Amino acid sequence: MKKIVALFMLCGTFLFAQINLQTASKEELMSIKGIGEKKAEQIMEYRKTNTIKNPEDLKNIKGFGDNIVGNVKESGKTSKEKTEKKVEGKKEEKKKELNKTVDKKIEKTTGTLVPKL
């Protein structure tokens, strides 16, 4: 039961996962479409003296326009969707594992096989 509760807490954390522009590593920044090594370095340099609260703040950096800001916003949505799919997969795995455990306990106590539906 504790494992299930922990899984649900972890799932809630992942649902809101997104790249934090203020703390992201160079590699994380480069995972966003349109941001290469140079642009990632520009972001890292900019955030040394400025706070990036939202993707719109990137427009203050030379060479960053609507396209890149849009890609950053889309990247956040995409990572949420991927994370939600992973979470659902983990939930299904845990349900199957729990069902197998329960079936084994029933078989052990009754001495008969549990019919599969």
Give the topology, please.
Layout: H1 2-15, H2 26-30, H3 37-49, H4 66-110
Helix pairs in contact: 1-4
What does this structure look like?
Keywords: Signal. Residues 72-99 are annotated as: Disordered. Residues 1-17 form the signal peptide. Residues 27-46, 56-75 form the Helix-hairpin-helix DNA-binding motif class domain. GO terms for molecular function: DNA binding. The chain is an all-alpha fold. The protein has a domain at 26-76. Helix content is 66%, strand content 0%. It contains four helices and no strands. The chain has helices at residues 2-15, 26-30, 37-49, 66-110. Helix 1 runs antiparallel to helix 4 (66-110). The longest helix is centred in the last third of the chain and has 45 residues, at 66-110. The relative contact order is 0.13. Mean pLDDT is 79; it is low at 5-17.
